[in-house]
Amino acid sequence: MDNKIRTINIMSAETIAASGTCYGTPNGASASGLECIPLAQYRGDGDMSLQVKVTGDGTAQITYYLSNDGTNFRTPAGSSDIVTAHTKSSGSSGLEIYAIDLPMVAKYMKILVTETGGADTITVTLDLCMQ
Questions:
Q1: Is residue 112 part of a domain?
Q2: DSSP state of 76
Q3: Which CATH number fits the domain that encloses residue 126?
Q4: How many CB atoms lie within 10 A of CB 70?
């Protein structure tokens, strides 16, 4: 059985405008969200966590979406945001790790960061860890 722990950077110091959005991808951030995280490639059916680093005066909401075909992404029924209000004061100077509890197995995932404060930008780095 493969119990390797894999970490992939899905967003590296990406600036998100006030009220803006950005998707994290294995190849870096993507404003379009056309790319997704292929969970099957990383064996993402076990435990997951997301390390979040935020700088700037805005607030980050982080949400995930799942798909089995890589085209149609939905928020799973009964799921909740990874975090609703992460700021530069969260955790240790804006750095925190959150558990991702997937309510079901899926082949693909997207992670969306939204600046929800509405007045200031944020700069975000995300590292996804999977077992």
A1: yes
A2: P
A3: 2.60.120.260
A4: 12
Residue whose entry in the numeric block shows the structure tokens 């600036």:
15
Number of domains in the chain: 1
pLDDT values of the chain reduced to their tens digit, one per residue, 131 residues: 456 788 989 999 999 999 999 999 887 666 666 778 888 777 655 789 999 999 999 999 999 999 999 889 999 888 899 999 999 999 999 999 999 988 788 889 999 999 999 999 999 999 999 88
Dist CA 17 CA 111 (whole Å) = 17
Tokens of 16: 């998100």
At 118, give phi and psi (nearest 5°).
85, -5
Is the full-model pTM beyond 0.85? yes
Residue 59 — φ and ψ, nearest 5°?
A: -130, 135
* Whole-number Å distance between alpha carbons of 129 and 56: 24
